[in-house]
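ok so I'm stuck.
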Amino acid sequence: MKKIAFASVLAAVALSTVEAQAQDTLSSWDRYTSFLLSSCILDDLGLRSKMMAGMQAEYGAGMTEREDRDGMDFHDHPNGTTLELSASDEEVYCRVTIPADVLDADGIENLHADLDEQLGYKAPDGAIDRLEDETSTRWSYDGTKNNRITVKFSVQFDRSLLIESRSSTADES
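replied:
not stuck anymore, here's the structure
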């Protein structure tokens, strides 16, 4: 009986350590930049790219797949961040919601500035369209697969963040 109790305690400690490590994966704006560039802002099309992004979210960012419904994958992080992915031969769509309590005002500003810089590097010859208003920024540029990539960064009324990315065939953009 003591062995079973001891094994239960060890399992609980091991699982809490995994959750704690997952919690740390998305704890700063620079970690979010890496996560968004690897699991959301994709220069690709098709189901394979969605599957690879989902695996990157799980193994690289500590997310778990909550649901797979009607071609949309839903992933959750222990800190409340969510990732939604869908794909077809013509498009890959991603939506990330970051809760208001995860990044402070400086973190939001730094994430925005870093995405602006990183997306400028991804655009061929730095040719990127940028549209900004009071609560959002939209970047759009040509990808490498005869596709157009559009990324929207929005601060919501509750101070949470919504980042949406769409890679679609150039003739559908």
